[in-house]
Amino acid sequence: MKLTRKQLLGAAAAGALGAAGIYELVDELAEAPERAAAGAPPEEQHLLAGMKVFEHEGVEVIEPPLHHQVVTAKLRVEARRSDLRQARETLEDAVRRIEHRYDVTPAGLAVTFAWGLPYFRRYVPALATSHIPVDIRASRSDEQPVSAVLDARRFPSDPEQTILEANDVAILIRSDRREHVADGAKTLFDEAGDLFALTSIRKGFQGGGFLGAASLPKVMATAAGVPGADLIPETAQLFLGFTSTQTHTQGQSSIANFETLGLVDVRTGYFRGGTNLHLSHIYEDLEAWYLDFDFRERIDTTFRPRLEAPDGAQTLAQRPEDSAAAPDVEADFRRFGAIGHGASIQPTSRLQMDIRGADGRLYRKGQAIPLRADFNTLDNPFFWTADPERDGFDEQPAAGVHFLTFNPSSDDFHRNRLAMDGVLPDGTKLPLTPRSRAQGLNSVLRTSHRQNFLVPPRAHRSFPLAELLS
Amino acid sequence: MSRVILLVVCVAALAGCSYGNKTEDTAAAESQSRGCPAAWKAGWQRLANRVDTPVYCPNWMPSPLDASIGGQWNSDGPIVDRDRSYLVGFLWHEAGSGDVHVNLRGYPGRTTVPQCIDVQTTGGKTRRREVPCFSDPRGTRRVGDKNVTVYTVSRDADQWHVTYLWRRSGTLYTVSEHVAPPLTFRRVIANLDQLVGGLELIRPTA
Prior knowledge:
Chain A is α+β, with helices and mostly antiparallel strands. Chain A has helices at residues 5-9, 11-18, 24-29, 81-101, 117-123, 125-131, 136-142, 178-192, 216-224, 286-292, 295-302, 326-336, 341-349, 388-391, 410-420, and strands at 52-56, 59-63, 67-75, 110-116, 134-135, 163-164, 169-175, 196-205, 264-265, 275-284, 355-356, 362-363, 371-372, 375-377, 384-385, 400-407, 445-455. Chain A has one domain (8-34, 46-468). In chain A, 29% of the residues lie in helices and 19% in strands. Chain A is globular and about 60 Å long. Chain B has four helices and eleven strands; from the N terminus they run H-H-H-E-E-E-E-E-E-E-E-E-E-H-E. In chain B, the strands form three sheets. A seven-stranded antiparallel beta sheet of chain B has the order 2-3-4-10-9-8-7, with helices on one face. In chain B, strands 1-11 form a two-stranded antiparallel ribbon. Chain B has a two-stranded antiparallel ribbon with strand order 5-6. In chain B, helix 2 runs parallel beside helix 4 (185-197).
């Protein structure tokens, strides 16, 4: 007997894909911002055209989409050339149908496919060996070839319980309009759902407060009764009270591509225009953040000790010329016994010199490399999971962030994340006790899940390398 | 679906909300009309005499606490410093269930926010620095006959407490409660409204 799509996908998962749950409130509470018109979709899947840039508190800020959904899955496809090719066509047809309906912009709908190493190992191992880019810098450090995409690892401030995931694929769906996200998910899984065994559905939001109205994080957390919600500033872009999408803190243009900065050898060129995605879920203890750290301390630990900031500021300039270098971070630690989150990462996340990119652009010293796509969530830890026990699922809403960042390689992300824990690029380890108060921001974060993915260029987004199987 | 409707109702309610609700407001009004219970008064009178300054005695405490100085819930003090500033703390603690912890303080002759010493040990090195004992003011509230300032970051014995602070005749007074399970921030605000609304001023007699 042939199973229906709903049976294959699982009735609960199929329902959860379109369900809004608490996130339905986002539609009632926030108007979609006006967006610029879009041109042709960029070569890169991870870039969005039509992003709105404006000034907030005198700082240039990018306004990301309001609604976000990530679906992770294992594949139901047999590891046979014919099956893979057919699966590729099916998926590509479904995505093209979506793109026919919507511009690839926040006002429309953006769908990004990211493939986990389990996919490459199971389905296209030989091709992966020759095509997946190699991280030149990491290979030099390790004195052996290091792939640009690595299995996720735990970091010093991660609890032992952090789950390192092994999904075949992650699909990121973003829009200012929830109905676009729901329609995109429905189209995708109606037409190609039998290719996937869903493992999780993750949903969330951000922003909405730049024009002075109560922001989505504030209103949603309050409505959900999340502990500490009353303490979130009214217009905060994110639960923790500060804006994170300043133009200067986001990787611009194609800087996060594998090939742009020369950190990665794209070898055959198949994955040129691709990048590494790190996906994690992090719980945020809002009561600890707002009751144990006063505004001055929140500035110190989020940015840098003694950084000047007007009382109550939410959006602080993080200019390239003000970027901290590793000796600055060490000096802060010696003087204050603490490091700032932003400053600690800058020695690895900002360019240390001017670089003419492979795309011909001049990227200036101090520019940010990672392109973050993180969003707040009330998922605990996911909106839906195929394995509630393993994932520690709870229906009670919890404040957190689905953290997504595009970096030129997994190792590049790992360097940034290690720096957050006081492990500097030259290997210096500042003696910070994991999750201690001296770790400031890190002391109120708890990562539940992590995985790295390879995001192919748009041309190879569906079952990458499968078309090359002989 | 019912959950969504419920949440919408909550959001609508929040639009014009104070942190309390009608039942609590009524209770607060009732508590204001009663004075310090006789069973508690003697202890507070002794404290007023000792610090030679009026002190405030509650007529209501969050369950299961009472405000009997020397009673079963009296965890701290009264601790009286050389400058006559005092701390009286009341604590219920049950492992796995949480805390209910209330502190009442007075700083005779002082109207500025006092300084506390923040001690942090990192990498084997201990650093001490002066910080305000109460910071992150979140506006003022009229509670009974008092204009209180609400502070959300508190130090020392008041760490993780929300603090109500006001001044009277050259003396600074605070009442704070710990935000910890089973209490939420919103519940603590309601408790402090009721507690501070029902305080009776006890003047020194000696």
